[in-house]
Specification:
The complex is a heterodimer of chains A (116) and B (649). The radius of gyration of chain A is 15 Å and the shape is globular. Helices cover 45% and strands 0% of the residues of chain A. Chain A contains five helices and no strands. The longest helix of chain A has 15 residues, at 4-18. Chain A has a single domain, classed as Orthogonal Bundle (Cytochrome Bc1 Complex, Chain D, domain 2). The model of chain A is unreliable at 1-23 (pLDDT under 50). Chain B folds into four domains: 2-60, no CATH class; 72-240, Thiamin diphosphate (ThDP)-binding fold, Pyr/PP domains (Rossmann fold); 264-432, 3-Layer(aba) Sandwich (Rossmann fold); 450-645, Rossmann fold (3-Layer(aba) Sandwich), CATH 3.40.50.970. In chain B, 40% of the residues lie in helices and 14% in strands. In chain B, strand 7, helix 12 (291-304) and strand 8 (307-310) form a beta-alpha-beta unit. The chains are: A mainly alpha (116), B alpha/beta (649). The A-B interface holds A 1, 37-39, 41-43, 45-47, 49-53, 56, 59, 75-82, 84-85, 101, 104-107, 110, 112-113, 115-116 and B 355-357, 359, 361, 445-456, 458-461, 464-465, 467-468, 471, 482, 485-486, 491, 493, 567, 569, 572-573, 576-577, 579-581, 583-587, 589-590, 647-649.
């Protein structure tokens, strides 16, 4: 589960990384809400882990600009999200949410993934 | 009555005096029908008058009340027994009452055992799963009109999936003889017309001898590749009445047809092409009909050191075999200079692709100059209405035959054709493929670790938890796992034929629970000790939840693991695409696609039908203990359901 303290603690650092002011800081809590509301989770999983219907988005998401460029312009199976549907601020919030995902532990440290 | 018809002389014992006497004794009765006035009396909840009771008595009494001789439906059961049909599933139907009574009372204890299903779709789905596990057809006994309507979607799935089953549909053909009201409403001139487009053969026998010959013919047709459902309309009068006096009946001996074998010259040409290829790829869909089929595919792939891509129509090829390149399908297909499809239903989609982006962008997966070979029964039998045959794709060598029986010759020809130089190239290729497989496995294992502790539970975590509990057991998956992003096929070891049965074929929702139960019944019937595992989608389960009751009623052990993502997620994605393409947004995509308010209590549903229900489980750390408990119960011959709250995919 994504702990609220981890989301809060990363909000500021993400805002700094993205070079936006504090008032415009991307909000990962809202981002999670949008991620569900705009059905990103249907194909990519609720924490962006990826499924056979959509690739992994997190942890370590693409840079915001690159991800937004793809989402705005894709002609693939995933329909493009115009700004009317998902505005830049909301998109940044989603990106912030994905950026809060903890690093994946090495599968070799998980006993169930080391069974024959 | 129809007794006047010399064609139907089954009531010779019924004397004219008796009929006349009944008519005289009961004012208002028509001597030619015997039942007319009684039949038109509307149903009422008040005590009948003396005259009405007399009419009823006259209609039911007389020589036919207990008739001498052997019932026609007993003979019908004799025919089923000669074919060694083990099970016949029914939802009770008046048009099948004669044979129903014979199955349960005529030498009881013998097969076929009558199974009670709560929906005809459940019965047909069970027959689907049963046939894929046992290789034998199950029989179904349904109303000819409303029952067939209920069963039709599941029959279509079986048709698309090349699965045999024998459907018996009750029908009263003689309007002068059948009861008015519901029995007549349920009768039809041609009751099988509605499923004729997706059954291989049907008949409506007019006599018991005709029935015997048609049932044996139907069985033979169903079992000859391409294996498909067949249907027999059972006349109610033939069932209900005695075998006519003096009539001698015989049951034809069933002799299985040899399966269609590929033309030797075409097989030889295919072998030469494969042997000469630098990057041969074998694509398999419903290639292996039996365990022998899988063994032959391994032999062929190893002889060629060819990549194998599995489309999961059957347990075709071990998933951990180094030549299995299914996870790298795009790569090997794109590199291939020769691609061979074995019983591939949609070969166009192997060579090409289409993106679902409204514009339907088409692209080529394979090289422009790739050489192609197909071995398929699709060219032997096809129907024009329903489009399950998919888009047309030319092949350079197209062999109309059953893959499995053609493989021994193909293997022999490949071994003969391979030069030492080609063998050396193949050996090097196998090493490269093995390395690529190891890299892919590493990538997948790391992907499985993502969001390991997430709630809802990831499908990778769920699959890993199940594997930990069953890996040392004798298990068989009786469902598909595409809704779980194929994690069982990525994490488990599928190397035995009984461990996987493929999917629905027609993608008709409602297949899952019945087909899994049929597969579990097959394992039970074979006495192989297999623990049947069903990954069950929640939306699919709600089409035929009565299958849970059938599992309990007939003591069919099965481990049902609910993949409860609380939505029809495939459809969420479709609606989402439309909303975005039309620039109207997707905020409302949940409407009509999610299953909430209220959530379904699947454990409670199971309990209501007598099955142990565990859950809902939303904490992944609770999975292990629950699964251990459930597996222990299935090993103790009980059906169990675990409700797991899961990620969408």
């Amino acid at each position: 589960m994504i702990k609220s303290f981890s989301i809060a603690s990363m909000t500021m650092s993400l805002a700094l990384l993205l070079g936006v002011s504090a008032s415009q800081a991307a909000d990962p809590v809202k981002g999670k809400e949008y991620f569900m509301k705009y059905q990103c989770s249907s194909c990519h999983g609720t924490v962006g882990q990826g499924t056979n219907s959509g690739p992994k988005l997190a942890p370590d998401p693409l840079p915001l600009d690159a991800m937004m460029n793809f989402v705005r312009n894709t002609m693939g199976q995933m329909p493009a999200y115009t700004e009317k549907i998902l505005n830049d601020a909301q998109f940044a919030d989603i990106h912030a949410y994905l950026s809060t995902m903890p690093k994946t532990q090495d599968y070799k440290s998980i006993p169930l993934l080391n069974l024959n | 009555m129809r007794d006047n018809n010399p064609k139907f002389d089954r009531r010779k014992f019924m004397t004219g005096a008796a009929v006349a006497g009944a008519a005289v004794a009961t004012p208002g009765a028509d001597a030619t029908t015997g039942t007319a006035q009684a039949a038109i009396r509307p149903p009422v909840a008040v005590r009948p008058t003396a005259q009405e009771m007399n009419l009823e008595f006259a209609a039911l009494s007389g020589p036919s009340a207990t008739y001498p001789g052997k019932p026609g439906s007993d003979f019908m059961v004799d025919v089923l027994r000669t074919l060694n049909i083990d099970y016949i599933a029914t939802n009770p139907a008046s048009s099948c009452r004669g044979i129903h009574e014979s199955i349960i009372n005529y030498n009881p204890g013998q097969n076929p055992e009558l199974l009670t299903v709560m929906h005809e779709e459940t019965g047909a789905g069970m027959a689907h799963g049963y046939a894929k596990v046992t290789g034998k057809p199950m029989a179904l006994l349904f109303h000819g009109t409303v029952g067939i309507m209920h069963a039709s979607m599941a029959v279509y799935n079986a048709w698309c999936d090349r699965v045999p089953m024998i459907i018996f549909a009750g029908n009263h053909t003689d309007a002068a003889d059948r009861l008015p009201g519901v029995p007549t409403t349920h009768a039809a001139q041609d009751p099988l017309q509605m499923i004729r487009d997706f059954t291989k053969w049907d008949d409506q026998p007019a006599s018991l001898q005709h029935y015997a010959e048609s049932v044996v013919r139907a069985y033979k047709i169903a079992m000859t590749a391409p294996q498909e459902p067949v249907c027999i309309s059972l006349d109610g009068h033939l069932q209900d009445h005695p075998i006519p006096e003096g009539v001698k009946l015989s049951i034809p001996k069933y002799v299985a047809s040899s399966q269609p074998h590929g033309d030797p010259n075409a097989v030889r040409e295919a072998a030469r092409m494969l042997a000469a290829a630098q990057h041969p790829v074998i694509v398999v869909d419903r290639a292996a009909r039996t365990a022998k089929g899988q063994a032959l595919l391994i032999e062929l792939a190893e002889a060629l050191n060819a990549s194998v891509v599995d489309l999961f129509g059957r347990q075709n090829f071990p998933n951990r075999h180094p030549l299995n390149q299914t996870e790298r399908a795009r790569v090997v297909t794109g590199q291939a200079d020769v691609i061979m499809g074995l019983e591939v239903n949609d070969f166009w989609n192997v060579i090409n692709s289409m993106t679902d982006n409204i514009e339907s962008t088409q692209s080529r997966r394979a090289k422009a100059d790739v050489k192609t070979i197909t071995i398929s029964t699709q060219d032997l039998y096809i129907r024009g209405n329903y489009q399950d045959f998919q888009r047309f794709q030319t092949a350079d060598v197209s062999i109309a035959a059953d893959s499995e029986v053609t493989l021994p010759m193909l293997i022999e020809e490949v071994k003969r054709a391979l030069t030492p130089e080609q063998k050396a190239v193949g050996t090097k290729r196998a090493e490269d493929l093995k390395k690529a497989n190891l890299q892919t496995k590493e990538r997948l294992m790391q992907a499985a670790a993502i969001a390991w502790d997430a709630q809802p539970i990831t499908t990778a975590r769920l699959s890993a938890e199940v594997w930990a509990v069953i890996k040392d057991e004798n298990w068989g998956m009786v469902s598909r796992d595409s809704s779980l992003s194929n994690w069982p096929h990525r994490l488990w070891n599928f190397d035995k034929y009984h461990q996987f049965i493929g999917g629905s074929g027609g993608a008709g929702v409602g297949y899952g629970l019945p087909a899994a139960l049929g597969g579990a019944l097959g394992h039970k019937a074979m006495g192989n000790g297999v623990i049947p595992i069903n990954f069950q989608n929640d939306g699919d389960a709600m089409f035929a939840p009565g299958a849970l009751w059938t599992a309990c009623h007939h003591n069919i052990p099965i481990l049902n693991i609910m993949h409860n993502n609380r939505a029809y997620h495939q459809e969420v994605m479709h609606v989402q695409r439309m909303g975005n393409r039309r620039n109207r947004g997707i905020e409302n995509a949940h409407i009509g696609t999610v299953i909430d308010k209220p959530f379904v209590d699947f454990a409670g549903l199971a309990k209501s039908m007598g099955m142990t229900g565990i859950g809902p489980i939303s904490n992944p750390n609770d999975l292990g203990p629950a699964l251990k408990r459930a597996v222990a119960m299935v090993k103790a011959k009980e059906p169990v359901l675990l409700d797991i709250i899961t990620q969408p995919r």
